[in-house]
Specification:
With 96 residues, the protein is an all-alpha fold. The protein is 42% helix and 0% strand. Helix 2 packs antiparallel against helix 3. The longest helix is centred in the middle third of the chain and has 20 residues.
């Protein structure tokens, strides 16, 4: 059975997260979490939180033993990009 957890709107490059995803893919959950705990990258915290969420979903929703879980697949996609807008200070604004 496949268990899923999704993290959205994290402001970090997908390339940086994919590096960590490749390292822990195929590992048992406990081993993957121990590896992520000691990685210095900012993305490790986000990936760890998501893996913990998936393990909790497996335990609470499906009754699966957490010790038998393996990290099978991690999909990392780009989220929406932040757009900045700065109005022009032209003739429309008096006093400038």
């Amino acid at each position: 059975m496949e268990v899923k957890a999704v993290t959205k709107y994290v402001r970090i490059s997908p390339q940086k997260v994919r590096k960590l995803a490749g390292v822990i893919k195929g590992q048992p959950v406990e081993s993957g979490l121990n590896m992520l705990k000691y990685m210095p990258q900012k993305a490790a915290g986000f990936v760890e939180k998501t893996v913990r969420s998936a393990a909790a979903n497996a335990d609470n929703n499906h009754g699966i033993d957490v010790d038998s879980l393996v990290i099978q697949n991690l999909i990392v996609d780009q989220g929406p990009s932040l757009k900045w807008f700065r109005p022009e200070h032209g003739d429309a604004v008096p006093g400038y």
